[in-house]
Design a protein that fits this description.
mainly beta; Lipocalin; about 55% strand
């Protein structure tokens, strides 16, 4: 049975965000701004339904989905694209595949103790973020 990811998580660290954003064709000014942000995550996990909020001082991004069900994701606030997204479990990892203009786009979340890890990919770039559970 997969873990329940419900909780509020504070930003701890990130690696390679600038190159990840460059792979998504984000302009240099916005890349620099995003690299300065320290987002929090709030996850509500009820059975096969999940809501993942990424919270920043600029804007929030909300993913509301059912695990295993493909949906059209509007990534306009991120990079202006839409993609066909499916989120599923691979063991204890929540894995997202985002099919669209960019090859190898997606992410995976997993827990190690009270730390939530996020590995995002686009093209050949990988960005890793770590968050600490606070409630």
């Amino acid at each position: 049975m997969p873990p329940n990811l419900t909780g509020y998580y504070r930003f701890v660290s990130q690696e390679n965000m600038d190159n990840y954003l460059r792979a998504l064709d984000i302009n240099v000014v916005l890349r620099k701004l995003v690299c300065l942000l320290k987002p929090d995550k709030e996850i509500i996990h009820t059975g096969e339904h999940m809501v993942i909020r990424t919270i920043t001082s600029l804007r929030d991004y909300v993913m509301d989905f059912d695990v295993g069900v493909q949906f059209e994701e509007d990534l306009g606030p991120v990079d202006g694209r839409k993609c066909q997204t499916t989120v599923s479990w691979e063991g204890d990892q929540l894995v997202c595949e985002q099919l669209g203009e960019k090859r190898n786009r997606g992410w995976r979340h997993w827990l190690e103790g009270d730390r939530l890890h996020l590995r995002m990919t686009a093209e050949d770039e990988v960005c890793v973020q770590v968050f600490q559970k606070v409630k």
